[in-house]
């Protein structure tokens, strides 16, 4: 079964390479596989060996600008099992747009959005046809789909061979998929601020590029070792304004009844869940603000805190520790506004609630 976020590649993958004439040469490839039921009964080592073969791309160059210098961008989106047995993607056109902008941000040719959406749908559809997809489970309805599983889709760029510092003119775009279960498990929802810097003004913080994940990964591990679930980054200049989590955006429901999230700029990733939560909150009549918010204001004025992201969905934060002082929100429990937004978002994604925005896109 799908672990929270482990890698177990489904067989069908997609590859496209930018050509000198500006077109993209596309290919779908079915990697080595058995029937899903047969794979599930393999001894652990045999299954790992099979998965390792699926994760081998011998026609892609090992030494290139991605592996040497971090010249790589990626996306993450999910296809959700529906009650009628189908799969639906959540806002794939938003990921398509961000991927194109990320690639252009690293001065690569941007992958066309229409190709992105078509390829993502087709990879998910082909894997489903082979039986590789999580089946809808009515048990998930009992906890509002917090325990729901999904297909995680990971498109990423990969550059042509090269050893000197250079830009990528003819990158590949690869799309792989893997099953995922609930992201944050267990009772710990504590967060801690860090004085390490994720992104600097005029840097790449707004781009979903691999290089941006080095510091957050180190910081998250350090936070975990100290007993926290998540780390919160502050702005580089003053270490005063909240920016985001290690791989998620952040929201504060203030005592005055306003839902605030840090405004976008060049140091914050424009999250698709963030954008969706802003729309949902407005839809249910909660006033929202995108603005700078200081850690001091958060600690004195926030009633509820939660983080958002494709992997996390909406996860409440029970407390924030800043410079050794801990403030607990809503007695350490998930607050009502957080719960409403969470249940609405999950309900839309799993088809149990109306989708007034037309966010869910069938793969077939
Ligand atoms: C740094 C960072 N911020 C925010 C997000 C949330 O973005 P989204 O909601 O599009 O998944 C992510 C997740 O991909 C992330 O890596």
From TrEMBL:
One annotated GO biological process: isoleucine biosynthetic process
Essential cofactor(s): pyridoxal 5'-phosphate
Leading EC class: transferase
Enzyme Commission number(s): 2.6.1.42
Alphabetized UniProt keyword annotations: Amino-acid biosynthesis, Aminotransferase, Branched-chain amino acid biosynthesis, Pyridoxal phosphate, Transferase
Molecular function via GO: L-isoleucine-2-oxoglutarate transaminase activity; L-leucine-2-oxoglutarate transaminase activity; L-valine-2-oxoglutarate transaminase activity
Residue numbers of N6-(pyridoxal phosphate)lysine PTMs: 208
SUPFAM superfamilies, A to Z: D-aminoacid aminotransferase-like PLP-dependent enzymes
Pfam (any one): Aminotran_4
Reaction catalysis annotation: L-valine + 2-oxoglutarate = 3-methyl-2-oxobutanoate + L-glutamate; L-leucine + 2-oxoglutarate = 4-methyl-2-oxopentanoate + L-glutamate; L-isoleucine + 2-oxoglutarate = (S)-3-methyl-2-oxopentanoate + L-glutamate
Functional pathway: Amino-acid biosynthesis; L-valine biosynthesis; L-valine from pyruvate: step 4/4; Amino-acid biosynthesis; L-isoleucine biosynthesis; L-isoleucine from 2-oxobutanoate: step 4/4; Amino-acid biosynthesis; L-leucine biosynthesis; L-leucine from 3-methyl-2-oxobutanoate: step 4/4
InterPro entries: Aminotrans_IV, Aminotrans_IV_CS, Aminotransferase-like, B_amino_transII, BCAT-like_C, BCAT-like_N, BCAT_family
Protein purpose: Acts on leucine, isoleucine and valine.
Similarity comment: family membership: Belongs to the class-IV pyridoxal-phosphate-dependent aminotransferase family.
This protein's name: Branched-chain-amino-acid aminotransferase
Gene label: ilvE
């Amino acid at each position: 079964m799908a672990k929270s976020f482990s890698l177990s590649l489904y067989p069908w993958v997609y590859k496209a390479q930018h050509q000198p004439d500006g077109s993209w040469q596309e290919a779908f490839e079915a990697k080595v596989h058995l029937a899903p039921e047969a794979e599930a009964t393999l001894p652990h080592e045999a299954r790992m060996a099979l998965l390792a073969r699926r994760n081998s791309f011998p026609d892609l160059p090992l030494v290139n600008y991605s592996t040497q210098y971090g010249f790589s961008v990626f996306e993450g989106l999910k296809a959700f099992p529906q009650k009628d047995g189908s799969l639906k993607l959540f806002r794939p056109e938003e990921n398509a747009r961000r991927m194109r902008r990320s690639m252009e941000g690293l001065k690569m040719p941007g992958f066309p959005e229409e190709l992105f959406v078509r390829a993502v749908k087709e990879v998910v559809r082909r894997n489903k046809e082979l039986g590789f997809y999580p089946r809808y489970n009515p048990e998930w309805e009992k906890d509002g789909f917090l325990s729901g599983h999904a297909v995680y889709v990971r498109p990423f760029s990969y550059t042509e061979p090269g050893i000197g510092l250079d830009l990528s003119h003819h990158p590949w775009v690869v799309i792989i998929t893997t099953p995922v279960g609930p992201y944050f498990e267990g009772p710990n929802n504590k967060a801690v601020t860090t004085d390490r810097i994720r992104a600097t003004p005029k840097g790449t913080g707004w781009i979903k590029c691999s290089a941006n994940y080095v510091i957050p990964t180190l910081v998250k591990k350090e936070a975990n070792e100290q007993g926290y679930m998540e780390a919160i980054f502050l702005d580089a200049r003053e270490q005063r304004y909240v920016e985001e989590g290690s791989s998620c955006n952040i929201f504060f429901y203030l005592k005055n009844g306003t839902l605030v999230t840090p405004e976008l700029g060049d140091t914050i990733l424009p999250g698709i869940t963030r954008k969706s939560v802003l729309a949902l909150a407005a839809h249910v009549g909660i006033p929202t603000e995108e603005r700078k918010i200081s850690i001091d204001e958060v600690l004195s004025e926030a009633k509820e805190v939660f983080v958002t992201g494709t992997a996390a969905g909406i996860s409440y934060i029970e407390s924030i520790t800043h410079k050794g002082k801990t403030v607990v929100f809503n007695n350490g429990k998930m607050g009502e506004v957080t719960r409403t937004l969470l249940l609405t978002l999950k309900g839309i994604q799993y088809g149990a609630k109306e989708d007034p925005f037309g966010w869910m896109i069938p793969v077939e």
